[in-house]
Amino acid sequence: MGTFGLAASGFTEHALEQVAEDVVRSGYTVLDGGRLRTLLPEDELDTFGQFWNDLPPDEALTDGGAYRYRRYGRLRVTVGEGGPAFEALPHTTFRQDGIPLWRGADRQFAPIEEKALLHPGMLALASFDTALAAAISGRRDWELGIHQIRMVASQDEDGLPTPEGRHRDGHCYIGMHLLRREDCQGGESTIYPEGGEPAKLTLRTPLDSVFVDDRQVTHEVSATRPIRRTGIRDMLLVDLNPVDEAQ
Fold it and tell me: For the packed helices 120-137 and 42-49, what is the interaxial angle rounded to 10 degrees?
């Protein structure tokens, strides 16, 4: 397992190696938002979070729900000693044949705007996830699927972060980053390592994160409910696959 240059402040190569060892040992790691906030200035985190205010409804839901809003984009990232190099990839449909609920469906999501896809906040988090994947695997070239997701819970309808239930997403690694949690309860994540005890946690503060080896664990998130009128949970999900294995 090797480490590569991470072009962001606050994480040394040694610290990245320690996190990588957690993933190798357990299949996942949990990262405190305060630690990841060192990767980007405060004002960039604030402006980055504003992009979740313009997400269209997820029209690919099969249950008729109106609780999820979403955009999707892709990046190719090459990790080098001087840091990662990024290339925005053409928009395409999204497919998850490994999950029965979505098998055979070419889901079409609105594209992530370029100003959001290449925003310093996005690139900082994508840099971290890719550097961690490279540290674990030794692979340098990655294709990233980027998902901006807002879950809205109302008095009439819960938010269902994982309507497919306990699952694997069918990727190599996944970074899950909380951007905003407001006036909602629930949203408890459960991670099921192979041969280990389930781990339960709730992402609460901006940039609280989970990184999983999707081949070693299954995972699910409980419904969100409003504390008052409307509850919001904004997530950035980053799917990581080596370029020669990308779906």
Answer: 100
What are all long-range contacts of 106-109, with beta carbons under 8 Å and residues at least 24 apart?
A: 107/60, 108/59, 108/60, 109/58, 109/60, 109/70, 109/71, 109/72, 109/147
- CATH 3.40.50.1980 for the 13-245 domain, yes or no: no
How far, CA to CA in Å, does 155 sit from each of 6, 67, 80, 213? Answer: 44, 11, 49, 35
What DSSP element (H or E) covers 143? Answer: strand 141-154
The structure tokens listed for 100 are 């029965």
| pLDDT tens by residue, 221-232 | 999 999 999 999
Range 222-245 average pLDDT: 94
pTM here? 0.91
Domain segments of the chain as ranges: 13-245
